[in-house]
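Hi F.,

I've been meaning to write this up properly since the lab meeting, where we talked about keeping a consistent format for the predictions we share between groups. The idea is simple: the sequence comes first, exactly as it goes in, then the structure tokens exactly as they come out, then a line or two of notes. No screenshots and no reformatting. I'm using this chain as the first example so we have something concrete to point to.
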Amino acid sequence: MRFILLAFVLSLGCSPKPAATPHDTGKPPPSAAQHPHAVTLHGDTRVDDYFWLREKDSPDVRAYLEAENAYADDFMARTAELQKTLYDEIVGRIQETDQSAPYRSGAFEYYHRTEEGKQYPSYCRREPGKPDTEAVLLDMNALAEGRPFLGLGAYEVSPNGRYLAFSLDETGFRDYSLRIKDLVTGQLLPERMEKVKSVAWASDSETFFYTADDETKRAYRVLRHRLGGGGKDEVLYQEDDERFGVAVWRSRSGELIFRGAFSHTTSEISFLPADRPAARWRLVAEREQDHEYDVEHRGDELLIRTNDRGRNFRVVRAPVASPGRASWKEVVAHRDHVMIESLDVFEDFYVVFEREMGLPHLRVVAFDGSASHRIAVDEPVYAIYPGDNEQFATGAYRFRYESLTTPDSVFDYDVSAKTRALVKQIEVLGGYVPEGYRAERLWATAEDGTRVPVSLVHKLGSLDNGPARTLLVGYGSYGYPYPTTFSHARVSLLDRGFVYAIAHVRGGGELGKPWHDQGRMAHKMNTFTDFVAVAEHLVEEGYTTSSQLAIEGGSAGGLLMGAVSNLRPDLFGVVVSLVPFVDVLNTMLDDSLPLTVGEYEEWGNPNERDAYFRIKRYCPYTNLQRRPYPTMLVRTSLNDSQVMYWEPAKYVAKLRAHKTDDNPLIFKINLDAGHGGASGRYDHLKETAFDYAFILSQLQ
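Output, unedited:
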């Protein structure tokens, strides 16, 4: 969800560089009214002057947000030509009319395609190898007509290929409505279910299972529906522990329906035969705190990824007839230095997605007992991950590969021959040559001696004349590794001499579950001090200087931005904070909000005294002080349900009242989007061009 900061180590004698204020509008920035709201907990009283900004329907709140937008637009008006140049460059590298690599599922090949000038893809299928048999299943552009936002959630075709279950979010607030489309007639069936997250079809293609959300957007119920059945759907399961959300899915074998309950630390999974949707659910392993597992199916056995004997997981097998832990037999042992992130199981082989020393690997293992092997990779920094693999009986494995210099590429891997065939590589137009850029892996040393990996890319020659302008990004939460993937947009920075770097700080998953553990709960401060250490390393090694260094993070990465801006405001020239989780303490005290209760296992529950003061120590909003801060751009969306708009709004209002410098502080609010920003691809690229124009115009 989000995140925070530490003020106690900041030397007030260190101030950021004097602010030249490019694009000063000559007008004063908006100033939010202060209405003190006092809260006392654990003997500690906090006064929140901007609590009132939570009132989304208040005319005063709307007026303030619109005033911030007007100020931002006025400030950025002088970059209009640069924004257009950047946008045109980015679009000019993209093959606007394009098609994804088709994948086989049942009797059809499925894919999506885009058309020049259109915001959204069309989802299609065809008979294998027959392009002239294309059928458009969902035309997202037609569905989006008249709407400023549209997001696709569930997309599940029935086993017989006749029906499509799909869900749409029309506001960005993650309220998904499920509809069923008859792919033979092209008509929508009368069924409509609200607040649906996941869907799984039974073998009869008439029955499906789905999950429904509660008022906090937590999937808490599993229901069963039969097409045309009428009446109220039966609730098969309700999860009453608010830390857990539920999901349903169908095994790749097609023979089982799984129902899972998951918290941030614990799992519990049951299943039933897909051809007997009214059968009784069979439990795999009863939930046990801090035990996470997931399940794949093959024949009369299950393959299970479990962390029962180590944080980095192992793989076991168990009979379908008796799947409990007493029956588990080890297949792949736990290794302290290798994280098993996921498992794909097929009829004749399985693939283990591993991560070692911060780098991902795909290990292929045949069931006939032949030696396992990894799919070879030859770049120092890259991303490799599973592709669309819907067929259970196959001799090929589809995976995707990209890097900071190599565009997204789809490969089919022949398991027996150990050879790969390129199916599709995303084009980069405009004369891009990968060999003209250099990617590196560095290691910075944190204040406690821990080595922190850094991924980096720049154009050859950018550092020939000394330090360069640099964009350093990070995340560091939930155990998510920051992806080292390709970006058409990023080339515009690299071609202007920028270095782009990723700080793989603790709290992420780059070095396995222990890496996550060392950056969560009582150890959260490591995330922030790691990032500072990476920034200092880039300066010390001559890649950049503090006045040339921009940093960027979104959501929980926005927490990171707020925290390090409080810790070391002198270290950064520009901060870009996107949908930032900056009001951590107040949000984690409000259990009516989406995500709060479930995330007690990531940040702690501040209703408990120790957790309260631990979070208070680093919460960016709580720790804003009267001091200089770097130049800053904050962006958010009004309909964000993961980090509510008022978090960045309150943060900016308080920062304006406390900062003692003249450095620009810009706040831009998309009034028609959610957590991911604009939903249309061209609109999204305009937001990126806006961010880049801000960075380019503000960095010395």
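Notes:
The two ends are 33 Å apart (CA to CA).
The mean pLDDT is 95.

If this format works for you, I'll send the rest the same way.

G.
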